[in-house]
Batch of 4 targets.
Target 1
Amino acid sequence: FLVEQNANLALKTADRGYVLETGRIIMQGKAEEMLKNEDIQKAYLGI
């Protein structure tokens, strides 16, 4: 397991990713797919 505030680093390191919001998983998937997701890019990756 890896817990990291830097979402970009975490998704480049891990095989899978999970997005937590108020203690609940709101998104999950393969890290490479999450890196390409426009919603994740805007909200968590600053792209």
Target 2
Amino acid sequence: MEKTLKVASSSLDPLTNSTRSGMIAIGVCGTISLFSAVSSFLFFTYRILYWPGLSSQAPARRQVFMLIYNLFIADIIQASSFVISFWWISQNKLIGPSLVCDTQGVLIQIGDVASGLWALAIAIHTFFSIVKQKTVSHRTFVILLVILWAIIMILATVGPIRAKDNFFAPAGAWCWVSEEYHAERLYLHYIWIFISEIGSVILYTSTLCHLYFLINTGTPRPFGPHLARSYSRNAKACSASRTIVMRCSCHMVMYIFAYLGLTLPLAAGRAMAMVNREPSIEFFIAAGTLIACSGFVDVVLYVGTRNLLATNCVTRESIDMGNGNGTQPLVEGSKNRCSSNTSSGMMMEEANDHKYESCESMLLSVNTEVVSVTLRDSHEGNFNRISWPI
């Protein structure tokens, strides 16, 4: 005999005009994010599987690439949950518990937590690679990826398993954890969102401070007449390095504000609801529309910022051009298999893949097989710009 579940008091039947309009906005934004994330995911998959020279080495070992790849998977799951809004619109109601309601709730639970934790993972990797100049081995990195996905799945399934039938119910303009489970909302969802937000801000801010410290303490200075000629060349090199750092710093600031702007309103609204100061449904609709844009924004930020000037390894050596002993500016990656440039005396090595997947990839190449560039003194003191078309 089939068990009949009691309809949650938060169900809407029929939908109000404002809720219906809000669901349309959420569904449209979710569809755009889904299309963007799926397109990027498929293209990255194509690169791994079919591009010569990439499937065996570069993508598998480029850790930032793989972190962004997993972030797109999280964005696909999250965006799919908001596309379900069109189902509720077609039915002119939002009711739960039900199969569709449970499906939407599970997808939101997985997608929100996963996107936050993968964004945090990118921030952690950026911090350790740039500030600490350290990365883990490929084997350890893969194990950490599996562990992180296992944590995400445990957080998404432990609640429904314990509550059995009525864990998910209408919560505003979509289905999510029922308001009866305040504690589960906190420790299975929002505590991880807040950790991701706070952690990302701290890590990116620390990385920015490190980069600005390198800039402010790396000004070239001539220490004698015999260095007059090289000073001009080194000043140009230092200026180019500073330009790179400033551009990447701007993108890091964009990552911070984009993530906070998209996730903080909804998280704050739910937190207010837990202390009996629940905002209006219009607030949740607006906040839901923002978070439904996450997939599209991630694609724009993490894919659209990778075509940058390819001077790698933001370290003291790449910014401090004049230390009084005629040291040549050096910017290099983890492996040096260089070939000469006959006209300018510039030495450069290009690894298997001529592409940066993000601003971080450019900065992190000190420990990955991306591109290795060695700058030597030349008579002209010119810099070659390297652009990697996709």
Target 3
Amino acid sequence: DRIKLVAQDLVAHFEQRQEVMFGKGMIVAMSRRIATQLYDAVIELKPEWHNEDLKKGVIKVVMTSASADGPEMAKHHTTKEQR
């Protein structure tokens, strides 16, 4: 599955980069659906990176939301102030 391969590559790249220079990263996805699928794939590889608290954890999905979003996207909903 392509999403899982991309997640593996992202995790490996980020961890290697952290060994050289501490910092943050940003991933831009083509769609909100892809962003949430990629998040889930990364968390499958690195469950310790997840935290429900917006101020904790290593990885977050930052996106706009719609009332018609399904449960997989709804768990990433944030207010304008939180984004």
Target 4
Amino acid sequence: MSQLFEIASYSSIHYSRKDEKAVYLRCTWLRERNIRHVNYDPYVFLLDCVRREEIKRRSLSAIAFMMQKQDMYHLVNNIWHGQSVVSENRDLFLLRIVRYDVNEEWSPWNCMLLTEEEADVHCKIKNLADVYSKPLVEKILLSHQLAKNQFKYVRIIQFRE
């Protein structure tokens, strides 16, 4: 009798685990179906552009290489609102994220989102205050402060090295 009870209880446990797995799979499918999927390709491209530029400049900073595609997505869309800070162009394939102060290493708090043409001009500017308006500079510096706060983990790792 006890052996029969063990078999019955084992089969009910086994059956309930199958049910749990089926419920889990259905929940996973529903979650994935309802979550907005992001195409990270443009952000990977932007990140690769930053990394190539930092290699070209022989930068010793590892920040650009620690950043992930999700970080670049956040930087572009939440810090810079997905548009050039100068022209407000929103075409991701025309935008580049470049150093704000070209003499300092690239970081989320020393960058700005510009079109490719604007970036070329920006890199040639000697004194930014002579070219950019005071409200624009304040807007950029505010974005830098926001990036410092939101990318604290990068700053902590940077200062440990």
